[in-house]
Amino acid sequence: MIGNSKKIIFWLKGQDDSKKFEIKEYHPKRSLNSNSYCWELCTKIAEKINSSKEQVYYQMLKEYGQSMLIPVTPGTCLEGFSKYYEFYERGKLNGKDCDWYKVYKGSSNYDSKEMWIFLEGIVYEAKELDIPTLEDYKIEKLAEEWGK
Questions:
Q1: Burial (Cβ within 10 Å: 0-12, 13-18, ≥19) of residue 41
Q2: Which band of pLDDT confidence, cut at 50, 70 and 90, is reported for residue 31?
Q3: Torsion sign, CA atoms 130, 135, 138, 144
């Protein structure tokens, strides 16, 4: 259920007391338009720099995407866990050896704010290469659709 606090409280009052519910703040999902525009720009950038759209996308994730550092036992293969990652450093955690990896969240898992930040970066890179992009007012309109 999505609604304001009054609507949700009213609905909860009518529910069985033996049931448990989880409540979390609603964040609008990114629009499909944002994802298609992201890939369109990655493709144009790739053509301009003689690369693949997948390589450009990965570079954009590294520059503008969401990431986190995770520790793993040395020698662990991350391929089954994440598609986008890179070795960060070897270190220790709680006295044990570990390898730290920077893992990048794929844009298909972004909320609207994360997608907006990501897309802004890609637009910047495209403009630096003199690749035409949507006018600022159209990008602003897309941002409103994303719930920025």
A1: buried
A2: low
A3: positive
SS3 118: helix
Residue 8 to residue 143: CA distance in whole angstroms:
27
How high is the pLDDT of residue 140? Answer: 64
12 lies in some domain: no
Tell me: pLDDT of 81 over 90: no
Mean pLDDT over residues 50-65, rounded?
96
**Span between the terminal Cα atoms of the chain, in Å:** 21
Asked if the structure places residue 24 within a domain, the reply is: no
Residue-range definition of the domain harbouring residue 109: 29-66+105-146
Does this model's pTM top 0.85?
Answer: no
How many folded domains does the chain comprise? 1
Q: Phi-psi region for residue 76, left (φ > 0), alpha (ψ -120 to 50) or beta?
A: beta
Question: What is the token pair recorded at 137?
Answer: 């007012």
Q: What number is the average pLDDT over the span 112-138?
A: 88
